[in-house]
Each structure stands twice: as structure tokens, then as C-alpha cells.
Amino acid sequence: MSDARDANSSAAGSPANNTGQAELPPLLGLDGGDAPFADCVLSSRVRLARNLVGFNFVNRSSPEQLADVVHRVQSARLGGGGSGFDGGVRWVNVQTTAPVDRLMLFERNLISRPFVEATHPRCVAISSDETTSVMVNEEDHLRLQMLAPGLQLRALSARMFALDSSIERSLEYAFHPRYGYLTACTTNVGTGIRVSAMLHLPALHMVQELERVQRAAKELHLAIRGFHGEGTESLGDFFQISNQTTLGRSEHDIVEQFAGSILPQFVEYERAARRAIMERDLAALDDRVFRALGVLRSCRLLALDEAIKFLARVRLGVALGRITDVPLSLVNRLLLEVQPAHLARASNGELGNGRDDRAARARLVREAVRG
Amino acid sequence: MQHHCDRCNNPAVVHETLVHDGKKSEVHLCAEHAAEGGYILPTQGGPTLIVGKLLEKAAAAASAPQRAVKCCPSCGMTMAALRESGLVGCALCYRQFEEELSGLIQRTQEGATAHVGRHPAHAAELIDRAAVRNRLSRDLREAVSREDYERAARLRDELLALGEPTSDSAAEEASSESSSGGGRHA
Ligand SMILES: [Zn+2]
Ligand SMILES: [Zn+2]
């Protein structure tokens, strides 16, 4: 991350002023190992879509106008009130930064895939702990996003609203008395809030219940996607679940229903499947997870999809206490580090066009999980 | 695309495509000439209010031309382009295409029709004013359709007296409208 960090960093935001707001709940387990529901939830995320008054939306703006939006947001105050940017703000000019760094930000879930691939003026503000980012000129002028390991949506959304209020003090949002916060896509209008969690559901896959999960998600009006948001085919049995509607219910209701009721049910369903498998056929489960660990410990060439697949199996073994010499936080970290841009950066290389990175990936993983 | 007023050379803030006897023509008017023509303009940089056009149409009576292609005066979006891209072009589009969008929004939002939840700190009062404005606009439209022009004129005066939102004080329409005025962008 260090090169991207240096490339476009600006001075940290001014220190937090005393806004008199109640203290926000702390986020737990920043390395992911002991976060709530870490056994079944890789990470959770809250994002808000916002647009500025006085500018056309991004899809109807000229590059000059978009550069103007960037300038306007960069001169606004993002920090304060426990909003995520209190430790300072790093700005990355995504239009000019190296492709490998752009992709790395995507792999870290700090920017979206369309934001990587766009060509217009755009930038992202990233907090020093990398839990908070603000994309400027994604589909909307502002996409505020906060990310935490495990299931921590309540704590995240409290922070998010503090950030939103703090930004609103220096930028005027487009707001409609009937439709609320106005967004480029009508699927985001109203609250503009999207809450999501990356679930790990390997046991439900093993007992062939994934189809029921998909159906349940659909009935509950939830969107369900694979590892990086593309398609529904999921690598490593990771599924991102999120709310699909943003109008007609308050942010609080949306978060409470999702974090308080819906997600715990999915997690309980997965946990029940895990218990059933342990009771029914522990030897088969052990074979599956230790065989995967064996591959990671001895491989010499490791493709990305294989890496995710075997890391996911090891993750299950660790979560169930079968594998005890690999911490969950290490598995979480490796799920990031095996990805192409991270790997390229670690091996001081550029992103090769079809360059074979399997040997480098195998070396990285082998050394990390050495027995 | 920067248009100038049809009657003088000032920048136009009202743009409309009209069809008359099967022929298409475009109307571009500056603030002053638009006001003269019966369009109600907010004090600063706002858009034409639809009620102004209704009044003008009513006054033109039977020979009133029909609008052909509605186009957002701020971003130039048409409903066809909006459908194709799936994206709204600017805040003013939400007003300009209110009827068309309300159906689309209901479909994408599982039947929800109105926002509940957070709002900008300064929006509360304006949300109330917006409700009054909406009621007056509705009454005005009714009056026009009944051809009760005396009442319509009075309602129009009340609407004007309510004060049009300005870009620095309003949340409601400033937020959704201040970007209008024919490409007036900071
Ligand atoms: Zn004129
Ligand atoms: Zn528009």
C-alpha cells in the first residue's frame, strides 16, 4: 500500500473538533480474528450515495465539471466527530494513479470495479486505518463507505451518520422532500444506504442448501452476489448479501432489520449446517480442511481461484477449531494478499499482462502457513 | 449547448420543444421574456415551474401547441435517454420527469413512494413549505383545468408569495432545482 499512499497523499485533515456527540462504539478486531460473527462473516460494509447541489450527476457532466466536483469535495472538511477520518485523510487521484494501485484499492474494497475502469476525473479519500473511504464521481458525486471485519453494522452505521453529518456541514446535498437524497440510479434514492455483509457459507454448500439460501434472500428482497460482487457463482463459498431497496424505510430500520434479524438468521443456518457435518462425518470434514492446508503448505504453483478455494476450506477448519495452528486473521489477510495487485506490489512488480504469478502466490502462501 | 433568447440575445433559461400543425419548433427564452410569456421562474437560477407552463397553455386556449419532447433544462436528459441508460441526469430531472419517474421508482423500490429517515439539517422547514407548495400547485392545476383563471391567477400569486427557494437557503427545491438554468454550473 505504501506507494499508493505516497503518490497522492495530502496533509491530514484538521484534528477532530469537539462536536459534543456521544462517543461511538469501538470497532472490534481490526485484523478480523476476533470480530463478532467472524466464523461466518468475513466483513460488513455500509455505504451512502450522495450528490451535490449545483452540479449535474456524473453521467451528465463534462470532464471539467467533474474536475470541479473533485476540487469542491477535496476542499471540504471530512473529519471530526468520530467519523472515520479523525486520524487523517489520504487522497488518491484515481484518474492518474498507477493501474496496479487502482486495482489494489479495489481488492481492498476501498473502491468499486467501475471506479477502477472509468477514465473521467475522480478520486478517493481513504482514512488512515482504511476502514473509511469516499469515492468522488463514482455513479454519484459521493459514495461514502465504511468497512469492518465480522458483523459490525450497527457500529459502522453510527460512524457513517457522523461522517455524513460532518460532510453535510461543508457541502450541500441534493435532497427532495418526497424522494429524499437524490441519486443517479433510482434504486438508491431515498436514504441512499446500502448495508452488506460478506458471508462465508461453506457448510451450507456441503449440505447442498445454497439454493434455499438464494431463494430466502430473494424473498427478503436482498441482493446476493459472489466474492467480488460479480455474478452469483461464488468462489470459496463467499456471498455478499445486501439490502435492495432504499426508499420508504429509515436508515435505522434498514440497519436494524439487516443486522439484528436477517443476518443472524443466515449465520445460524450456516452454523447449524456446520454442527450437523461435525456430528455426521467429522473424518470427512477433517480430510477436507487438512487436505486444503496441505496443499497450501506444499504447493509450488498456485492460481488465484485455487488459492481462494483452499483458503476458504482452511478458514472453515480454523473457525470450527479443527485447525489450531493458523489464526483466522491470517487466513483473512491471505485472502487479500493472494489477489493479483497485492501480489504484484509485494513482489515489486507491475501488473503483468497474463504474467504467470502462480509461483509468487504459492511462495507467499506456503511461507505464511508454514507448519 | 448554449441557447440564446429568441427575443433578445441574453442566455436562455427556458427551453421547450413545441409541435404546432405537425411542425416542430424550439422555444428559448431568457428569464425576463420567459416571465413575460407566463412562465414562473424562481428568483435565482431555478427552473420553470410546470404550473407556469400550464397557465400559459390555458391562456393560449384552443390553439395551444402540444409539447413533443420533454427535455431537462439543466442536463438535457430526455425520458428516452433516461430509460436507456437507467440513470437520472441531475436533481432537476426528478422534478422534470416526476410523473414518469414515480412509476419507475415505485417498481424499483418495492412499492415505496416517499422517503423516511435522515435529511439535511436545514431541510426540515423546507419540507413543510414544500408540502404547502405542492398543495397550491395541485389546486392551481385544477383551477386551470376548470378554466377558472381568476382563481388560478390568485393561486399563482400565493405560490410566488411563498417565496421561491434560493440556492443558499433551500434544501428542498434548491437541492433539486438550483442546478438548472441552462447549464449554469459552477
Ligand atoms: Zn430575452
Ligand atoms: Zn436533468
Number of helices of chain B: 8
Distance between the termini of chain B: 16 Å
Please identify the oligomeric state.
Answer: heterodimer
Shape of chain A: globular
Question: Which class do the helix and strand fractions of chain B yield?
Answer: mainly alpha
Bound molecules: zinc ion
Mean pLDDT level of chain A? 88
Give a quick account of the main beta sheet of chain B: strands, pairing sense, barrel closure: 3 strands, antiparallel
How much helix, percentage-wise, in residues of chain A? 40-55%
Radius of gyration of chain B: 17 Å
Number of strands of chain A: 10
Low-confidence stretches of chain A: 1-22
Gap from first CA to last CA of chain A: 28 Å
Mean pLDDT of chain B: 70
Note the beta-strand portion of chain B. Answer: 5-15%
State the shape of chain B.
Answer: globular
Question: Please, could you describe this protein's structure?
Answer:
The complex is a heterodimer of chains A (371) and B (186). Chain A has 371 residues and is an alpha+beta fold. Chain A has helices at residues 2-7, 63-74, 99-107, 113-117, 153-168, 202-206, 210-219, 251-280, 282-298, 304-319, 328-337, 340-346, 358-368; strands at residues 41-50, 89-93, 123-127, 132-136, 142-149, 175-176, 180-181, 193-200, 222-225, 238-243. Chain A is 42% helix and 15% strand. In chain A, helix 3 (99-107) packs across helix 12, helix 9 (282-298) crosses helix 10 and helix 10 packs antiparallel against helix 11. In chain B, helix 2 packs parallel to helix 6 (124-145) and helix 6 (124-145) runs antiparallel to helix 7. The radius of gyration of chain B is 17 Å and the shape is globular. Chain B has eight helices and three strands. Mean pLDDT of chain B is 70; it is low at 40-52, 61-66 and 165-186. Chain B is mainly alpha-helical. Chains A and B meet through helix 2, helix 5, strand 6, strand 7 and helix 8 of A and helix 4, helix 5, helix 6 and helix 8 of B. The structure holds zinc ion (ZN) (2 copies). Residues 72, 74-75, 77, 89-90, 92-93 of chain B line the site of one zinc ion.
